[in-house]
Design brief:
alpha/beta, binds guanosine-5'-triphosphate, RAB31, member RAS oncogene family
Length: 209
Amino acid sequence: MMAIRELKVCLLGDTGVGKSSIVCRFVQDHFDHNISPTIGASFMTKTVPCGNELHKFLIWDTAGQERFHSLAPMYYRGSAAAVIVYDITKQDSFHTLKKWVKELKEHGPENIVMAIAGNKCDLSDIREVPLKDAKEYAESIGAVVVETSAKNAINIEELFQGIRHMRHPLGTKMSVGTRHPSLQPTLLPARAQPLLQFPASTTQSRRRT
Ligand SMILES: Nc1nc2c(ncn2[C@@H]2O[C@H](COP(=O)(O)OP(=O)(O)OP(=O)(O)O)[C@@H](O)[C@H]2O)c(=O)[nH]1
């Protein structure tokens, strides 16, 4: 029988940035233009084979509307990873992302892996957030960063793969300072532009203050 490793992941970010759409694309390979705002949170799972094991993502998709903000700790507490999403066409959503990172650093699990997703990269002609800004910010906090499109299925698999690669093995955080080949910047398939960037030096550079 194959071993199953579980990985609890939560999605955080402003309302309308596409958190539910990312999860829906990842789990069901589906995109809905008329998706409703999440109320509270929703839960989905996806199991993927990995060598001799099965890796099961337990995904909590939180509601981005401000009135649900106080519920978020219920979902990020106990999470191995957080996907923090912004909309590349909305500078405000990048600002909100930074607030989530601050909250996670202050109140989240100590070793939580952070992955930043700049969603709606299919709309890059009306972009407000340069990829360079996101990369620099991600580097400064030791996070994975990638631009995604839930609509066009760009970099969604890679986003979740990136999270798996930040864990070694899945469910057990690599110790700070340990270098693993999978943390090197990864070349993605041609359609998967732009690049998934891993932090340069360590799995995490965050510190509690
Ligand atoms: N063009 C484009 N639109 C997208 C993309 N992802 C999501 N959307 C649209 O953005 C809107 C909001 O998407 P949601 O997935 O509901 O956003 P959310 O972050 O889950 O929102 P809350 O549930 O309120 O927190 C919907 O109209 C989606 O169809 C994308 O990659 N490209």
